[in-house]
Write a sequence for this structure.
C-alpha cells in the first residue's frame, strides 16, 4: 500500500523537473526572439544600420531612456509624460540630425483620443525627415499626447545633434 503513495508523488516531482527544464529552454528562446525583434525594430527606424551598440549614459535629458548607435545614426528610446500616463517612443535619427523613423512602443492614453498615437501613421509621419523643429498638426482631442511625441522627437534629435533644444517647445500647424 505504501508503494502506491510514492508513485503519484514521484510522478509530480518528475513532471515539475520536466517543466523547469522546458522553462529554461523556452526562456532562452524567448529572450533570443526578443533580441531579434528589437534589432529588427532599430534597423527599420534607422535604415542602413545593421548593428547597434548601447551608448553609455552620458545625457542629462530625463526624457531619454537609452541610446543605440548604428552606422548611419542613432535610435533613441524616450519616455515622456502624456495625458494619462507616460508614453515610450523609439526615434531613429540620422547622423545628419534628421528623423528617419519613430514608433510608439508603450502608451496608455485615453481610448479613442490619445490612444490614436498607436495607429495614426499620418500623424507620426509628419516628423519624418525633420530635425525636430517640425510644423505638426496635433491629433484632434489629443493635444497633450501629441506634444508628448514632439518632446520625444526633440529630445532624440537634440541628443544626436548636440543642439540645445527645449524639448517642451512645440510648433503646431493650423
Amino acid at each position: 500500500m505504501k508503494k502506491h503513495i510514492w508513485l503519484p508523488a514521484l510522478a509530480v516531482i518528475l513532471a515539475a523537473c520536466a517543466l523547469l527544464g522546458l522553462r529554461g529552454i523556452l526562456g532562452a528562446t524567448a529572450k533570443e526572439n526578443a533580441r531579434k525583434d528589437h534589432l529588427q525594430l532599430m534597423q527599420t527606424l534607422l535604415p542602413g544600420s545593421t548593428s547597434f551598440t548601447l551608448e553609455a549614459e552620458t545625457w542629462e535629458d530625463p526624457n531619454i531612456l537609452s541610446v543605440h548607435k548604428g552606422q548611419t545614426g542613432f535610435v533613441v528610446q524616450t519616455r515622456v509624460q502624456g495625458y494619462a500616463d507616460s508614453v515610450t517612443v523609439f526615434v531613429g535619427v540620422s547622423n545628419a540630425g534628421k528623423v528617419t523613423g519613430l514608433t510608439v512602443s508603450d502608451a496608455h492614453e485615453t481610448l479613442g483620443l490619445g490612444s490614436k498615437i498607436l495607429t495614426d501613421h499620418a500623424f507620426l509621419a509628419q516628423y519624418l525627415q525633420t530635425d525636430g523643429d517640425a510644423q505638426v498638426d496635433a491629433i484632434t482631442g489629443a493635444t497633450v499626447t501629441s506634444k508628448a511625441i514632439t518632446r520625444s522627437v526633440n529630445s532624440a534629435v537634440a541628443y544626436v545633434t548636440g543642439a540645445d533644444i527645449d524639448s517642451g517647445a512645440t510648433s503646431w500647424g493650423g
